[in-house]
Write a structure and sequence with these properties.
The protein is α/β, with parallel strands linked by helices. Helix content is about 25%, strand content about 15%. The protein is built from 3 helices and 5 strands. The chain has helices at about 25-30, 65-75, 85-90, and strands spanning about 5-10, 20, 35, 55-60, 80-85. Helix 1 (about 25-30) links the parallel strand 2 (about 20) and strand 3 (about 35). This is Rhodanese-like domain-containing protein. InterPro entries: GlpE_sulfurtransferase, Rhodanese-like_dom, Rhodanese-like_dom_sf.
Length: about 110
């Protein structure tokens, strides 16, 4: 999305807290170790659960949902940044991915 603050995966600090806006089944299949799950579908009703990280790195599967979330959060005054390429780019660059199920990580 144009005008959405975005950062490439390579520029996300290794220990950066991430807000993962995918759905629980996507999360369980594989997510960044430092991520917290808050599905986009639940964002409005759970907005008070947002961490106070500055910036707040937001990630999804490929970057589309997280870009929409960042646009919304930025309009609300949150210092959110979209992780370009999402978890697909994260995984492709060899960044750590963990799964809840013990099966191979799939993003």
């Amino acid at each position: 999305m144009n005008g959405v603050p975005t950062v490439p995966v390579a520029d996300v600090p290794a220990d950066a807290p991430l807000l993962d806006v995918r759905e629980p089944d996507e999360w369980a299949a594989g997510h960044a170790p430092t991520a917290r799950l808050l599905p986009m579908s639940e964002l409005i009703e759970r907005i008070d659960e947002l961490p106070d990280d500055d910036p707040l790195y937001v990630v999804c599967r490929s970057g589309g949902r997280s870009a929409r979330v960042v646009a919304y959060l930025a309009a609300q005054g949150y210092p959110a940044v979209n992780v370009d390429g999402g978890m697909q780019a994260w995984s492709a660059q060899g960044r750590a991915v963990v799964a809840d199920s013990g099966t191979p990580q799939i993003v």
